[in-house]
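Curious: why this fold?
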Amino acid sequence: MAVDAINTSNAVSGTGRARLAENFDTFLSLLTTQLKNQDPLAPMDSTQFTQQLVQMTGVEQQLLTNDLLEKLVSNTGTGVATAVSLIGKEVRTDSNLASLKGGKAEWNYTLDRAASDVKVEIFDSKGRVVRTIVPTDNKAGEHKLTWDGKGTGGSDLPDGVYGMKVTAKDSEGSTVTSKVYLDGKVTGVEQQEGFTYITVNGVLVPWDKLVSIRQPEEPEEAQTALTDTGSNNNTDDKTSSPAAA
């Protein structure tokens, strides 16, 4: 019911804006024609002309107001207000991009069934393939690829955002379906041209590309520290009272 209401509201808003735009264009045409064809001996009254200009400006402001309201509704329903809650969460996104930093970039990909031939291509921001990798573990399921940032010739490539493409085939040469994901922690949220993006491991990803969200795991060191807190089992402690005779 909520979705139907939103869609209906958007449709009504779009229809109203279209009508306002048509009226605005018609008004300009009529005003221009009126100015061109006015009687030189009885020109248009300045008061009337001013009133028409005010009406024209009012229509234009109404169009701008409708645009602003549409953006505000979008931001409230599916934008920054909702995406901010993702900051600090571990997420999986439907993205084949990853950030190379300090000679390391990571992707996750899945194979829907076992493959005999898998080729992984890494490309830069201009779409040029900079490295081709042939994995040896091609069983069905989840896989992780860690790239050392070196190009085909062995040279270190600059930090930045790179993409990955997986091509997989079985023993009969048939295509094995694969999917590439970006996993990581959300560190920021921003809007660009009305669309909401989240920052995952230094990569901007549309927030509607989220696949899963999970709470970050507590570091093992912290868990150990909590477990050891209050422990009194010290084998070197010689201060315990002797047993009663």
Observations:
- The chain has two domains: 2-78, 86-217.
- The first strand starts at residue 90 and ends at 93.
- The domain at 86-217 is CATH 2.60.40.4070 (Immunoglobulin-like).
- Helices lie at 2-36, 46-78, 80-83, 220-228.
